[in-house]
Amino acid sequence: MRTGVRKTVAHLNPDTMHKNPAFTQVITVSGPAKTIYIGGQDAVDVSGQIVGKGDIGLQTEQVLNNMQAALAAAGTGVCRVSESLGESAQPAHDHLHVCSRGGAS
Questions:
Q1: Closest to 64 measured CA to CA, from 37, 86, 97
Q2: Regarding the domain delimited by 8-96, which CATH topology (the fold level of the hierarchy) does it fall under?
Q3: Which pTM value belongs to this model?
Q4: Strand partners, 30
Q5: pLDDT tens-digit profile of 88-105?
């Protein structure tokens, strides 16, 4: 274990995501590498209302939009995560269609 490595911890709650006093949406830990922790995401909008009651497609879209917002707050995007995860990230990558149109990094 290395000692003396300085780490910075940031607690992020993006404006486009529901603010819950019980938890932080995103936590980043920066040091020699940056690690991003994203809270479990639900199909809720910025006001905390459930999106797509009874419609799993709309709920999934909202969850993925929340994930995209969380990653953006941490300074990255789904395309970078896709690069790191490879083929296991393909379903989310295909659903969001952001890498091919240059919408997120």
A1: 97
A2: 60s Ribosomal Protein L30; Chain: A; (3.30.1330)
A3: 0.73
A4: 8, 34
A5: 555 554 555 555 544 444
